[in-house]
Design goal:
about 450 residues, 14 helices
């Protein structure tokens, strides 16, 4: 199940007191030695001086060994944070459906239905990671295979995204604080369930999108969180960039460049007052998770905005591998179709933890709802999985947040402003020809 690095770090912290005690013994021995050197050199004083020299050396060596041991424990915890995490997949009845049907026809399907009911009643049976998932060579082959299959959906998505871009002409994004929306105070979530439950799912508007930026303050230290919503309008044309055009851009797996919402997130952070070096976490649902993963997979943006963690809920992120230093967690319901829209499973890489469960509520919307993903986060939290404790401990440490931290939220309006379209079809064709020739 993985190693709980919180225990390793607690052990390192426990060495601070013995280290301080050894330092006090060293100082006491040094003070006594200074006084003894002023005494007459009779045999007993000589023996005393020799004993104090030995004691001072032992205390000094002990202090040095404790410091080294503490550093090694913290170093080991850091390595496990980014190298031990593996996918924690929960059993999905959909995985076994073909075997039941092919093996038993109608009777196999009826048997599968019984298995499906049993699983739905207790969906948190953890599937142990198999040896081939932890083999680097086989994992690499598996990732290449996923890339191959995913290209069948990524390429047409990229073509459509580029066609829309060139047919509509140049567009720009406008990002600004929401008028009349004041900063609101929030409790600071220190666990996965609290984080997902607090995620902002604001009202949808046809003429603009919204992003919420949360500012964490711990003493003088500042950290940030961006809540990125899912699809709000089901069109490729319009002012709200949380639309199908952004879905095409993210499903294109980078072949169409950065999505409009990727640019909107970074601009919202800048306008909120972000300063270089302050840690950032991103959380998104559906399209918002794909946008968050796209940012977390971009080494340039990760470095510029010091992105430390990404949490996605019901998102198609199979193409996006987190950059070094980013711990990504993907919460997925295997009865939800959205995480499968990119045609590939999530990569088996060290700093990506996929948590899957199966919860079929007999509805596309219910299987994809933010409330359902809050339940999945809570189930993972209660599962005893070592990767959960490792993620939460690393996230809170990297963001520098604890029970004394405070949080405030600010909403930003995002608009896509496109070039005016010619009313005449001939003028439109002439415009396209001039662009293609330039």
């Amino acid at each position: 199940m993985g190693i709980d690095t919180a225990i390793i770090r607690a052990s390192a912290d426990a060495l601070i007191q013995p280290e301080m005690s050894a330092a006090r013994v060293k100082q006491t021995a040094n003070d006594a030695l200074t006084a003894a050197l002023n005494l007459p050199r009779i045999p007993i004083v000589v023996e005393l001086i020799q004993s104090l020299l030995t004691l001072r050396q032992v205390a000094s060596d002990t202090c040095s060994h404790l410091v080294v041991l503490k550093q090694k424990l913290l170093g080991a915890a850091d390595r496990y944070d980014n190298s031990e995490a593996r996918s924690r997949k929960y059993i999905s009845s959909l995985d076994s459906l073909p075997f039941f049907v092919l093996g038993g026809g109608l009777f196999g399907y009826l048997a599968w239905k019984e298995w499906d009911k049993k699983l739905a009643a207790d969906p948190l049976q953890i599937k142990q990671s198999t040896w081939w998932n932890d083999n680097q060579l086989l994992a690499l082959i598996g990732n290449v295979n996923e890339e191959y299959h995913g290209m069948f959906l990524a390429f047409p998505s990229a073509v459509l995204a580029w066609d829309i871009k060139y047919s509509r002409g140049p567009s720009r994004l406008k990002v600004a604080p929401k008028i009349g929306a004041k900063r609101t105070k929030l409790p600071v979530p220190l666990d996965a369930y609290g984080l997902v439950k607090q995620f902002n799912q604001a009202k949808a508007y046809p003429d603009h999108g919204e992003i919420r930026v949360v500012k964490y303050r711990t003493g003088e230290k500042i950290a940030w969180r961006v809540d990125i919503r899912g699809t709000q309008v089901w069109s490729v044309l319009g002012q709200n960039p949380q639309d199908m055009r952004t879905n095409l851009q993210t499903n294109a797996s980078g072949l169409a460049g950065s999505s409009d919402m990727t640019k909107a997130v970074t601009r919202a952070l800048d306008q909120a007052g972000y300063n270089r070096g302050q840690p950032v976490e991103l959380i998104g649902h559906s399209q918002g998770g794909a946008v968050a993963a796209q940012i977390g997979a971009n080494p340039y943006l990760v470095k510029k905005y010091n992105v430390k963690s990404v949490v996605t809920m019901g998102s198609n992120i199979g193409r996006f591998r987190p950059a070094p230093g980013v711990h990504m967690v993907a919460l997925e319901n295997t009865a939800d179709v959205v995480p499968r829209l990119d045609g590939r499973a999530n990569s088996n890489v060290p700093n990506l933890t996929t948590v899957q469960t199966y919860q079929d509520n007999q509805s596309l919307g219910s299987n994809h709802s933010k409330e359902l993903y809050a339940q999945i986060a809570k189930a993972w939290q209660c599962s005893g999985d070592g990767d959960y404790y490792r993620f939460v401990e690393a996230r809170n440490r990297n963001l520098g947040i604890n029970a004394t931290s405070t949080a405030s939220a600010q909403s930003f309006v995002v608009k896509r402003i496109e070039s005016p379209q010619p009313k005449s079809s001939k003028a439109f064709e002439k415009l396209l020809q001039s662009r293609s020739g330039s």
